[in-house]
Amino acid sequence: MHAETRAKRRAAVVSLGYNLTATAVKLAAALITGSVSLLSEALHSATDVVASLFAYLGVRVGATPPDPQHPYGHGKVETLAGFGEAVLLIAVVGYLLFEGVRRLIVGNELQQLEWGVAVMAFSALTSLAVGQYVWRTGTRTHSLALMSNGQHLMIDFWTSLGLLIALGVIYFTGWVFIDALLAIGIALWLFRGAWQLA
After folding, report:
1. Which residues pair with residue 70 across a beta bridge?
2. H-assigned helices in the chain
3. What is the pTM of this model?
4. How far apart, in Å, are the Cα atoms of 94 and each of 9, 36, 39, 91, 137?
5. Phi first, then psi: what are they for 3, rounded to 5°?
6. Residues 6+ apart with CB under 8 A from 20
7. Chain-centre distance of CA 9, in angstroms?
8. Which of 46, 65, 147, 164 gives 20 to 30 Å between its CA and that of 39?
9. In terms of Cα–Cα distance, which of 50, 59, 60, 62 is closest to 16?
10. Rounded CA gap, 81 and 68, in Å?
11. Range of weakest confidence among 2-16, 24-38, 126-140, 157-171
12. Which candidate, 156, 177, 164, places its Cα nearest to that of 42?
């Protein structure tokens, strides 16, 4: 197997493994704390799992050699994988906006926020490291699927950092409404990234 193909597959597998772990941890923290912003971040990570799958499949199929039906190869599959990620993100944005507005109106009770703070600190550090690795591999190998997946992970870094700060503010002030506002903010941020990707 060509070294470039191996590098692309390795980055796709690392991204997928990281996103599966991050989604499970964030979802557990959302259930423990009752935080809609943590739920938003968990759903964002879940879309990253699907995005990582798209990237992995795109890289695998894109590396398939030309055949009689595809004399120029299968490289366009990676482009389609990147577009699929954007469409998925836009769908998640709709749900997050709805849930954020609903909780802003109805209200929300949070508990054990220290778990949320710890999870988001871990998420910010690890998503930065994995995102940079996947992005660099995608740039080096000219893989649109990996570059878009790396972009997803870098968005995850910024949302994790923002959520970490917001949870800290809620913890010290008791201003629970910030949680719903942040969920809406995360949704709008995701929409921006999805639009650029599309």
Report:
1. 67
2. 3-33, 36-62, 76-106, 113-141, 144-173, 177-197
3. 0.72
4. 32, 14, 14, 5, 31
5. -60, -40
6. 49
7. 19
8. 147
9. 50
10. 23
11. 2-16
12. 156
Return the closest-CA partner of residue 190 out of 84, 96, 52. 96
Arithmetic mean of pLDDT over the chain: 83
Backbone angles phi, psi at 67, to 5 degrees: -135, 175
Alpha-carbon distance 129 to 63, whole Å?
26
What amino acid is encoded at 155 in this protein?
Answer: I
Burial, 136: exposed, middle or buried (Cβ in 10 Å; 0-12, 13-18, 19+)? middle
**Banded pLDDT at 70 (limits 50, 70, 90):** low
Q: Could you tell me the CA-to-CA distances from 46 to 1, 19, 66 in Å, in that order?
A: 31, 7, 33
Neighbours of 20 (CB within 10 A): 16
Percent of the chain past pLDDT 90, that is, above it, reads 23
Kindly list the distances between the CA atom of residue 198 and the CA atoms of 7, 58, 95, 156, 193, in Å, as whole numbers in the listed order.
Answer: 25, 16, 19, 18, 9
CA 16, 21, 22, 24 torsion: positive or negative?
positive
Residue 28 scores a pLDDT above 80: yes
**Degrees (nearest 5) of the Cα angle 147, 87, 143?**
20
Residue length of the chain: 198
Q: Is the dihedral of CA 127, 76, 194, 33 positive or negative?
A: negative
